Amino acid sequence: MIEVKKITRIYGKGATAFKALDGVSFKLEKGANLAIQGKSGSGKSTLMHVLAGLDRPTSGSITINDQDLWSRKQAEIDAYRNQTIGFVFQDFYLQTEETVLENIMVPLEIRGRGDRKAKAYQALERLEIKDKANNRASNLSGGEKQRVCIARAIIGDPEILFADEPTGNLDSKTSEKVNEILFKLNRELGTTLIAVTHDEDFARTFANKIILKDGKVIAHEGKELTV
Amino acid sequence: MRNIDLIRRGLRNLRRNKSRTILTVLALSIGAFTLVLTFGLSNALKTSVNSQLSLATNNELTVMLTAENKDQTGVAEYNLNATATKATEFHGENTTIQLMSKEQIDAFANISGVQRVWPNYNISAEYLQLEGDEKMYVVDNINAQSYSDQAKNMLAGAYPENWSETGIMLSQSYADTLSMNPSDLVGKTVTLGFLDVAAKNVEETFTIAGVLKKPTGFESDRSAATGTITISIDAMAKIYDTQFTGTRDFNQFSYASVLLENPDREASVRDAIAALNTNYSVSSLSDIVSRIKTVLNTVTYALAGFSGIALLAAAFGIINTQLMSVFERTKEIGLLKALGMPNKKIRNLFSVEAICIGLLGASVGIIFAFLVEIFVNNVFRQRLIDIGFGSHAILISPINVLMVAAGLGLLSFIAGVFPARKAQRLDPIQALREE
């Protein structure tokens, strides 16, 4: 259960201050899927960063499983980022000179786990790219890179999976495949899925939707979502 | 993140920027190399000084009577009491001394802690002749018996502990000249010819107690063709009397030797001698040893200082390398932070990399220093022995190695603090957005 209360995020100070989020509130059931839509500059990425423990809101609170997120100590927020959530970046952010295996094991490496390979192969298997395990990340196609990125996000068994424009850099066929994978994870593992997108077709496949404009929720739909 | 993973990741990053890492490591290794070599050189020098000096006794004092008032500056006042004055160079100092009378010298024998006192008998001999040999050979130097351990210097025979008045030690040069096996010489009789006060030839007979090796080390300036003999102090006194009785300076000596019962008595005996006359100037081996060690230490520190400057320059190389690394890897840092790596661990990652560069630099420098040590010590072995270096011109000790490695590790850690903090403070969102 994710509960967002009157979240405001202001960048800069004084005359140049910019309100990226302006009193956003909503509740999302555990295991649900949610698309955050909006034009660029609407605050959708900021909202996801605030939810993912990456960007501290100026005011308001976020409660994850009845626990306030931003009042936690930095070490606990680090642990939240590492263990509770998984993040799929639009630009992949893979270390191109390292192998697929090395790339996806990073979250477990940060967690301080010694036996990482078994878990890594499990994640790769789920994403059907086990055969690429020892390839360098630079030798992969865009769709493969996005799958590696997803594998890295789910290797630590997160409760919530965030995806920032996961299909933004992919052709339509590959997009469909990635789309399918994300929902499969949402269905099979019960992982809450929150994705930012401005792709109408992609957004349509989500059960719950929020549309942002100028940092405010202007429309929403979905049974597991309360605004 | 576990420390082992931190180190692995750090090493991987260094490997990725091979050429940059190698250049920084090389810069550091030059400093490490000179530093280790400086210590190695200094060790070898100290070791050879110690081994040279261990041959000499350290319970012998040399006493001179200086002519000048100790507080005098400029040209010395004329000293009525001085029987004669002369400039002498003794242990590297120019001093105007007064000759000492036999009575003055004998007074030292009454000091408690003194075992024996004798003046320097300045005698000369005309020739040396082996029994049954027709040829006579020149005698270049006559040494008085030594109280230091001479075992290492023996070629044949044994250095007598209690010298008899007729005992004599020959230098190797005589055995070589006579083409005789040194051990065959031991026990034979030689005749020493010298002139008495009336310039009449007098002969004394001695029995060869042993043959001394060619001098090496500090004494090696005497050529192998120099004929040197060593006789007892008593024999010297006897020859001195024959040669000088009745002359103007008879029983006037330029310096005296004082043998202590044991080295611990040095301070008290020095005080007692000073109490007799403040113009007595006392020197001993410990003076020379401490002077040599001071010079050695000064040279060592000066050279180490230059290496230190090289290392300081290299430290800026580390700062530069690590800053470039932070700028280049902004996205990686952002990703690691986004995936939950604590800021402190990011800082540690960069510190580990800096320390690795430092340790690599130290290792390369130390390896090169060892190679130079092996090369110099092997190629110049014989020449080194000849000039008294023992067999090592460079002697790198494990402590030197550890010190340099630890020092460089610390230096590079400190150099890496600024870049590591820069990485630590990066905002993950901004770092990821960076193009």
Provide the descriptors you would attach to this structure in a database record.
heterodimer; A: 227 residues; Rossmann fold; six-stranded mixed β-sheet; globular; B: 435 residues; alpha+beta; 2 domains; seven-stranded mixed β-sheet
Q: How would you summarize the topology of this molecule?
A:
The complex is a heterodimer of chains A (227) and B (435).
Chain A: E1 2-11, E2 18-28, E3 33-37, H1 44-51, E4 59-64, E5 67-68, H2 74-84, E6 85-88, H3 100-104, H4 106-111, H5 117-126, H6 142-154, E7 160-164, H7 172-188, E8 192-197, H8 200-204, E9 208-213, E10 216-221, E11 225-226
Parallel strand pairs in A: 3-8, 3-9, 6-7, 7-8
Antiparallel strand pairs in A: 1-2, 1-4, 2-11, 4-5, 9-10
Helix pairs in contact in A: 5-6, 6-7
Chain B: H1 3-16, H2 18-54, E1 60-66, E2 85-90, E3 93-98, E4 100-101, H3 102-108, E5 114-119, E6 127-130, E7 141-144, E8 154-157, E9 167-171, H4 172-177, H5 182-185, E10 189-195, E11 201-212, E12 228-231, H6 233-244, E13 252-253, E14 256-260, H7 266-276, E15 280-284, H8 285-328, H9 330-338, H10 343-379, H11 381-386, H12 398-425, H13 428-433
Parallel strand pairs in B: 7-12, 9-11
Antiparallel strand pairs in B: 1-3, 1-14, 1-15, 2-3, 4-13, 5-14, 6-10, 8-11, 9-12, 10-11
Overview of the molecule:
The complex is a heterodimer of chains A (227) and B (435). Chain A is an alpha/beta fold and 227 residues long. Chain A contains eight helices and eleven strands. In chain A, the strands form two sheets. Chain A has a six-stranded mixed beta sheet with strand order 6-7-8-3-9-10, sandwiched between helices. A five-stranded antiparallel beta sheet of chain A has the order 5-4-1-2-11, covered by helices on one side. Chain A is globular. The longest helix of chain B has 44 residues, at 285-328. Chain B folds into two domains: 3-54 and 291-433, no CATH class; 121-253, no CATH class. In chain B, strands 6, 7, 8, 9, 10, 11 and 12 form a seven-stranded mixed beta sheet that branches. In chain B, strands 1, 2, 3, 5, 14 and 15 form a six-stranded antiparallel beta sheet that branches. In chain B, strands 4-13 form a two-stranded antiparallel sheet. In chain B, helix 8 crosses helix 10 and helix 8 packs parallel to helix 12 (398-425). With 435 residues, chain B is α+β, with helices and mostly antiparallel strands. The A-B interface holds A 49, 52, 54-55, 74-75, 78-83, 87, 89, 91, 93, 95, 97-98, 106-107, 109-112, 114, 152 and B 1-2, 5, 9, 12, 16, 331-332, 334-336, 338-343, 345, 428-429, 432.
